[in-house]
Design a protein that fits this description.
The complex is a heterodimer of chains A (about 290) and B (about 240).
Chain A lengths: L3 H6 L4 E2 L5 H6 L11 H4 L1 H13 L4 E3 L7 H5 L7 H16 L4 E6 L13 H17 L4 E7 L2 H14 L3 E6 L2 E2 L5 E2 L6 H11 L3 E5 L4 H14 L5 E5 L5 E3 L2 E3 L4 H5 L2 H7 L3 E4 L5 H13 L1
Parallel strand pairs in A: 1-12, 2-3, 3-4, 4-5, 5-8, 8-9, 9-12
Antiparallel strand pairs in A: 6-7, 10-11
Helix pairs in contact in A: 4-6, 6-7, 7-8, 8-9, 9-10, 10-12
Chain B lengths: L1 H34 L18 H10 L4 H21 L5 H24 L7 E6 L7 H12 L3 E4 L6 H10 L4 E5 L3 H4 L1 H12 L5 E4 L5 H7 L3 E2 L3 H11 L2
Parallel strand pairs in B: 1-2, 1-3, 3-4, 4-5
The chains are: A alpha/beta (about 290), B alpha/beta (about 240).
């Protein structure tokens, strides 16, 4: 099977999947419950999420392993099951994806701040290495390190995946729009600074996920392209920012809202487009229609 | 007679020089807090490299006879206020605030004995926690650090905190204000019950809330007393209500 970057080099725009967290919640995941445990206890529900995105037209799907690192799993007493839970996550997505679509092993932040000595660089490296290897063992084609805000942690994760697996390494960070109108992660990193550093660390694809609807993602793509015209860019946009009203959380941007800006984000330089919080198979279906028609 | 005058002049000069030195120390200390200069050895920030940090200056100030209360009020607090405002204005980010907090807690180590003995006083007590079901703590930690740096005792209950645990802390610390944090819309909802439970158990307790999905409308709806979008806002609320 060819690599993701080969497809992009052919000039293709690829469609990624949508939200997992909000989808799991809809299926009954409670606050305080470990999502990754469902790979063993409720694999049919996890498979259903993966398959929904494949049927909606996604070229690639992620895995239910976002919090599958040692630090996060320790909070549930499951730190001894890093390998099993991540391997199972990749196996489920692989089964849904079949042989022809890509499986991206999701790796999220540890929640530990290096700056506050909550973990050492070696401990982080080991955690990301163990997780990446388990995802590869389950059939992941690429490792997608996502929702990162700390550049040093992101670099460690990229290197751990690159140096210990044969997977392509993708890394996306989460930006906020600050008062000046520019974008920064909460740790103060700009899209430009991210790009230069992560490419140097060994990422084949970089970009942004979460924190923004597609409109602000267009702005982030433009900032990335200002410093690098060639690196493949992946965007996972929220369906807008969540509103809470009378016991219900809603995300305001509809599939049509998202699809309506796809052409613009491609023109700005995005190569892979998918969704994050609040997006559904319907969002991905609409995005896929637009991309197919271009 | 002239000998007495010379002596008095010398004495007054030395007192005023000592005051000037004490003042200079406090100004320098505030600068160390504002810019996150922890100690002499620390290379951060670059512009203060090779100079004394919060650690050394606090020690020197105490040795020079500066009142520990003044060290807190005139040295630490102005520095924390400045970084809090810069953070609100997006001029600095989480790492800079964390460095300031580290500088401040290094200074506080020297002052702790004076708080314990009662020689120096904190303005009040603030109890903070991330609500039940939520494990996110960076925002909560920032608020806790900044509130402590502005002269309050902070009791941090951690994450995934139940009503019972909040109530226990409130009962053990009369007249404290409670802060609730949440990052997710799904856990933010727990703030309603926790706020009600606290106010039922200890009527009159003030509750302030914060976190990415939270806003003033939600605060009003659940019967909480204050919403602040940033740590400096919490400090200002506490100053208004307590100090």
């Amino acid at each position: 099977m060819s690599k993701i970057i080969q497809e992009i080099q052919k000039g293709r725009v690829l469609v990624s999947d949508g939200a997992w967290g909000t989808f799991l919640q809809k299926k009954g995941l409670k606050p305080g419950e470990c999502p990754e445990e469902w790979n063993i206890t409720r694999p049919e529900d996890v498979f259903d999420i993966a398959q929904s995105y494949i049927l909606a037209g996604a070229d690639m799907i992620e895995t239910n392993s976002f919090g599958g690192n040692w630090f996060k799993l320790k909070g549930y007493g499951l730190e001894d099951q890093v390998f099993e839970l991540n391997k199972a996550a990749a196996e489920i997505s692989r089964k849904a994806a079949g042989p022809d679509r890509f499986v991206l092993g999701s790796v999220g932040p540890t929640g530990k701040l290096l700056l506050m000595d909550e973990a050492t660089e070696d401990e982080l490296y080991k955690a990301f290495k163990d997780q990446s290897q388990a995802l590869e063992a389950g059939g992941a084609d690429a490792i997608v390190i996502e929702t990162m805000t700390d550049l040093e942690e992101a670099r460690i994760a990229v290197k751990a995946a690159k140096e210990n697996t044969a997977c392509e390494v993708i890394c996306t960070m989460t930006f906020d729009k600050i008062l000046s109108g520019e974008y920064r992660t909460m740790m103060g990193i700009s899209p430009g600074e991210m790009t230069e550093s992560l490419v140097e660390a060994g990422a084949s694809v970089i970009g942004a996920n979460c924190g923004n609807g597609i409109a602000d993602m267009i702005g982030i793509v433009k900032e990335i392209r200002q410093v690098n015209s060639a690196i493949p860019i992946l965007i996972h946009a929220n369906a807008g920012m969540p509103h809470y009203c009378d016991g219900e959380t809603t995300f305001p941007e509809s599939p049509a809202d998202m699809a309506g800006r796809v052409k613009e984000i491609i023109e700005a330089g995005a190569n892979i487009i998918g969704g994050c919080c609040g997006t559904t198979p319907d969002h991905i279906r609409e995005v896929h229609h637009i991309v197919k028609g271009l | 007679m002239s000998f007495l005058l010379s002596y008095l002049t010398l004495l007054l000069n030395s007192i005023s020089q000592n005051n000037q030195t004490m003042n200079e120390l406090l100004i320098k200390l505030a600068e160390c807090i504002e810019f996150g200069k922890i100690n002499l050895a620390s290379p951060y920030p670059p512009q203060l490299k090779g100079q004394d940090g919060a650690d050394e200056i606090t020690r020197k100030a105490l040795d020079a006879g500066v009142n520990p209360q003044d060290i807190l009020t005139l040295g630490l607090m102005p520095g924390m206020e400045r970084i809090g405002i810069k953070f609100r204005e997006n001029k600095v980010f989480v790492p800079q605030v964390l460095m300031s907090a580290k500088a401040m807690s290094t200074a506080m180590l020297h002052l702790k004995p004076y708080f314990l003995s009662g020689a120096a006083k904190q303005k009040g007590t603030f109890i903070i926690g991330t609500v039940l079901g939520d494990l996110h703590d960076i925002g909560k930690n920032l608020v806790g650090m900044m509130v402590e740096g502005n002269g309050y005792k902070v009791i941090d209950l951690g994450t995934d905190v139940s009503s019972a645990k909040f109530i226990e802390a409130v009962k053990a610390n009369p007249n404290s204000v409670v802060g609730l944090s949440a990052l997710l819309t799904t856990t933010m909802v727990n703030m309603e019950k926790i706020t009600k439970d606290i106010k039922d158990a200890v009527p009159g307790t003030l509750v302030t809330i914060g976190g990415a999905p939270v806003n003033a409308d939600f605060c009003a709806k659940i019967g909480a007393d204050n919403y602040s979008p940033d740590p400096q806002g919490v400090v200002e609320y506490l100053n208004e209500k307590i100090a």
